Amino acid sequence: MEDQTVPGSTPDAELRFSRFDPKDSRLQIINDSKLFSPIVTEYMKKHWGLADKGFDYNVVAVFGSQSTGKSTLLNRLFGTNFDVMNESTGRQQTTKGIWVSKAEDTNTLVLDVEGTDGGERFEDQDFERKSALFSLAISEVVIVNMYENNVGLYNGANLGLLKTVLDVNLQLFQQAGSPKTCLYFVIRDFTSQTPLSKLSETLMSYLEKIWAGLSKPDTKKDYSIHDFFTFAFVGLPHKIFARDAFESAVTQLRHKFTDRNNSEYVFVPALHKRVPADGFSTFAKGIWDRIVASKDLDLPTQTQLLAEHRCEEISKEVFEGYFVGGVKSLKAVESGKVLDEFGETANDKVKESLVLFDKDGSRYNSSVYERKRIEFFNKMATYLLPLFNQQLANLSKKTLESFTTSLAAGLAADEASGVFNFASHMETALRSSEAAFRSAAIASTLEGALDWTPDVQFNQFLIEIHRVSGDKRREAVERMVGSVQKVVVGAMKDTVIAKLNAGGPLMWGGVIDAYKDNVVFGIVQVQKRGAGFEASHEEIEQWKGNLQWQTWTGLLDTLKDETKDEAMCARLKNIFESKFRYDENGVPRLWNLEDPIDLYFAAACEEAERALNTYARIDKSITLLGDEILEDQCFARNSQHETKKRFDPACINIISSGRLQNIRDRFKKDADMLFMEAKRSMVVTTAKIPPWFIALTVILGWNEFMLVLFNPVYFTLLAITLGGLYVGYQYGMIGPAYHTGKVMVKGVLREAISELEKNGVDVPEFLKLDGAEKNAKPRRKATKKEGESSQSKEQDEADKKLD
Ligand SMILES: Nc1nc2c(ncn2[C@@H]2O[C@H](COP(=O)(O)OP(=O)(O)OP(=O)(O)O)[C@@H](O)[C@H]2O)c(=O)[nH]1
Asked: Atom 14 of ligand 1 has which residue's CA nearest to it?
């Protein structure tokens, strides 16, 4: 058979097919250069006589390793004339490309496909994948040819290739409801030692696994392999060693393919692709073109498949056996810790894991290895990412704490010094916290992990920082304004109390001045300290308003406290006393009979009444306090509280008229008592021994006094008596001596009375001791009772005063 140029085509070398023999019914439909024959239609008409057969034709193809007797089998089954290896030349590839021939007795197109695992093509398995897919796409039946001893071998049974072909076929050509394809497994050199049913079970389990592992599109993911394929299995004994059995089995099989009446006839209508015979050439060419052009069909080679498989295994081994254990310590971040060594550990372990991966993985297909290496890296990065995020969350918390501490320290120093630099502290703390967070976050990052960015956490961190600093500033401002208010209100209170105590006509002027002076002082302080907070004009105005209001309410409270009924009574009593009991020079009065006590009393009462009226009402213009306080501020403040009424100007009445009367009544009682006391003291002073009586006594007793002084006996006795009294007084012996003397006198008296009564003398009853004692006791008791009652009276009065 000599080579000829395809008729009607350009004499291009690429279009030259290896054989063209008009007498030969075989046609190389796809040559080694992967070109589709342009004369298929012609063959359909002239050589095969199928062009006008409509659907009355069938297509069968063969798939399997080379030199496994595929061509031999096809020739036997269909009477074709495909090249068969000449046994004397050894096992080498016979069929190149895809050949088509018509079956001898039936309208069946038979495709003899170049065997797989082609040694001649080495790693270029592209053609075998494409040709296998082509066969699958256009045939009703694909004979899967394999030796029995290869059934259990994944590669030997070409299942890897079948997986790839099924995968792409599913993506490209199979649709729900499209005709099924029959995969007819022909087990060569079948020995029957393992039953065919067992072999078919093994093959089916492989096929199920293959199907499960396909990357199915969403629309086809719920379909099983049986929705697209039917399966048949047959065993053919050894062609040489069991020749008769082989021949018999082949004959039986041929009937199944050729005899429509056979119960196991293979070409059932459900398998037909529904392509009319005259369109077969176009259909087949369209399929082939699509297979060749489709980028989806960038099928991996066996080495790629192997590399995929091994690299996957290696990465799994290294990941589980080394990496996970290596980074276990990083899980400590889950307890809220910030691990300083996070980044170092993560990077080290990832690098070491990659080295281990490279050691075995780099021997495989380089492009697959590179891709798998990236996948492995991403897998480790994905594993670490939640821990990294946790580390950043912990870091954010820790840095926020140090920010707060640093800010608080700055504020404490400010508060101690009274010079506020909040804005500066805030800036310093913010900068150092930002820098600390950033550097720690970067140090924790995994090199090469592009999606590991601290940006989200950093932004969150900044939001938190600003929230905390806002809170701190608000607190600091409140403290600052509060402390100024405290000082101002305290100072104002002290001055106001002093002014109220001083009283007098200038009292209210002094009180209002104290209020105003302190407010002005406070405002200066607030403005000065507020500058360090970089406060806005509105903010400072608000602080000033608050200060004024606090001082004002402080003033009102002070006035209220200082003008309570008790306080006012005491105050009025003081005023009364200072006028009534003391003279113009402040010297206490000693009341004499001739003193005009009633006049003094009236004047003192008048003074007290005048004072009471002064205290009762602020007699200065209310506007002196500041309009904003008295109008807007009061209104604004009141509106925040339950009583939403405008400021009442009547509040300048410090003491209500009802209370005034009450104070007057209470004061009157006090004043009356003091008056009575004064009257009594006047009687006591008047009832004392008059001086003239003392002078008369001295004049009349002068001689006796001289006698005693100049008589040595009397003088000695007097000196001894005075000395004894002095010593007794010094040692507290006067009382005991008095009692002893008293007892002695009583004893003597009792003896004397007894002697006198014995001698018949009628002793008067009052001289008798018992009678004397009897009389004396009630008097003492009465005296004591008097004392007690006067004492309790005094106590009651004192209590009343306290009340
Ligand atoms: N053991 C054994 N050998 C066979 C069988 N059938 C054919 N052979 C031998 O296997 C060799 C290859 O036969 P072919 O039919 O050319 O094989 P093929 O699979 O078509 O070969 P390629 O087209 O090159 O892939 C020949 O020497 C056959 O005699 C069989 O059933 N068993």
From this structure: 69
